[in-house]
Amino acid sequence: MLPAVEASNITHVYVNENGASLALDQIALTVADGEFVSLVGPSGCGKTTLLSIIAGLIRPTGGTVRIQGQPVTGPTSKIGYMLQQDFLFPWRNIRENVTIGLEVMGKLTRETKEYALHLLDELGLGHAALKYPGELSGGMRQRAALARTLATEPDILFLDEPFSSLDFHTKLQLENLIFQTLKDRSKTSLLVTHDIAEAIAMSDRIIVLQPNPGRIGSEIIIPPYLAEALPIDAREQDGFQEWFRLVRKEFTSMEKRR
């Protein structure tokens, strides 16, 4: 079976009035179908840049990206993107926000609208469908953003620090909800996070990037007893702290290479 994501020799240079800066250097990465992979590393290691290149939002200076075997030349509907900010439109109610992706793609039909409303119910927001973003908590808004992303039925979900603005309790709840929702749908997922515990609790595999320029420093495979547990349960398993120390050690090692 072809990998869901295959990035080969990705190099990227940013150029501005001050000169050129090498952001990524010879990144090679594959993500298997249905796998959950996290990218962690110090600031400046190019995590978000790499995610944007794979999503087709940035054209790399060098290298190639394939999604399900097909070359990426621009944004693709096969990928859904969930960001740190929910970017809900304040003048549209939640039901209208959740269907906006379908509208933009020209896919808003009775069937797809029903599916979007089903997602709202499934994510515990059915009662809030006619409310506006300003009336919801941060966690509820992020659930609405997830419903909006899933409504277009992408094969792969990219998560760029989607929990970082939430309080710890809400963050844990949303981790569980997203983890279970994606597993139930066998979605391939790529998460960018600074939170080592979050990466361990949610992932099958963690890739630690080193900075200046961004390179893959190490890859850590999470054991099944942690990878298959709900994130909140994984954090309480025997051995979780040992894995935390291992990943933290790798993270710290990368910071020293600045």
UniProtKB/TrEMBL annotation:
Looking up InterPro entries in the UniProt record yields:
AAA+_ATPase (IPR003593), ABC_transporter-like_ATP-bd (IPR003439), ABC_transporter-like_CS (IPR017871), ABC_transporter_ATP-bind (IPR050166), P-loop_NTPase (IPR027417)
For this UniProt entry, the molecular function terms from Gene Ontology, in alphabetical order, are: ATP binding; ATP hydrolysis activity
Residues covered by the ABC transporter domain: 5-236
Q: Which Pfam families match?
A: ABC_tran
Q: Which Gene3D superfamilies match?
A: P-loop containing nucleotide triphosphate hydrolases
Q: Does the keyword Transport apply?
A: yes
Q: Which UniProt keywords apply?
A: ATP-binding, Nucleotide-binding, Transport
Quote the PANTHER family the UniProt record gives: ABC TRANSPORTER ATP-BINDING PROTEIN, TAURINE IMPORT ATP-BINDING PROTEIN-RELATED
Q: What is this protein called?
A: Spermidine/putrescine ABC transporter ATP-binding protein
